[in-house]
Design a protein that fits this description.
- The protein has helices at residues 3-6, 9-15, 26-53, 58-80, 106-136, 139-162, 169-172, 174-186, 188-211; strands at 20-21, 24-25.
- It is mainly α.
- The chain has one domain (3-215).
- The chain has a two-stranded antiparallel sheet with strand order 1-2.
- β1 (20-21) and β2 form a beta hairpin.
- The relative contact order is 0.10.
């Protein structure tokens, strides 16, 4: 085993997975949660930078744009937790009555709560940024930017789900990501998935905004 493989994330997860739920390692869930928090900390940095500088100078605007871009490429990691419910597939034997089994029923709540955390993060992080953008521009522009980014987040989640890209692949494999993005426009099956995901994330955002998002300070 090579040094690189020994310290790879997959090998660490496979070796120290602690326990598995329907063949999904708990340590991978922890890793995904850590990634989901990154846009929150990036936002804190951007918000602090705005309060100190108000982005008055060209250099400050460029730095702010770069920080915002970092926030954006990591935001899908929060929304990605929502698709964690997919690990419920085949959690019971094929011959189970109505595809339900008592021994695995607890997994439904396990993965549901995991997905709900992603939903909450997705809404709150967007609301935080929208409030900041309202201060920088105005409420109407902030809402337009927010609504514009939701389809891009859905697109990013699909790239991570079906193509197994990570946020940092934007810098490491930009051409591969571009090819995958084009596939979602030229291939009907991919396009249909994208349409459904966009509609779903819009629904989750507006519902979450109504339930708890507007309470974000």
């Amino acid at each position: 085993m090579s040094f690189t493989h020994f310290f790879s994330i997959k090998n660490i997860v496979d070796t120290f997975g602690l326990f598995y739920v329907n063949d999904y390692p708990f340590l991978m869930m922890v890793w995904n949660l850590l990634l989901a928090f990154i846009p929150f900390f990036i936002f804190l940095g951007l918000n602090s930078y705005w309060k100190k500088t108000k982005f008055k100078k060209i250099g400050q605007k460029i730095i702010a744009a770069l920080i915002f871009f970092g926030w954006f490429i990591f935001l899908p990691n929060a929304a990605y937790l929502i698709v964690g419910s997919r690990h419920l597939l085949n959690y019971c034997p094929i011959d189970s009555f109505y595809n339900v089994c008592a021994t695995g029923a607890w997994q439904i709540m396990y993965f549901f709560c995991y997905s709900v955390i992603g939903w909450i993060f997705f809404v709150i992080f967007l609301e935080q940024m929208k409030k900041l953008l309202t201060g920088i521009f105005n409420k109407k522009k902030a809402e337009m930017i927010t609504y514009f980014f939701i389809p891009l987040v859905a697109w990013g989640v699909l790239l991570g789900l079906t193509e197994r890209f990570n946020s940092w692949d934007v810098f490491l494999h930009p051409l591969a990501i571009l090819v995958s993005l084009l596939r979602y426009i030229t291939d009907w099956q991919y396009l249909w998935n994208l349409i459904v995901f966009i509609m779903g994330y819009y629904l989750l955002y507006f519902l979450g905004d109504w339930l708890f998002g507007r309470r974000v300070n």
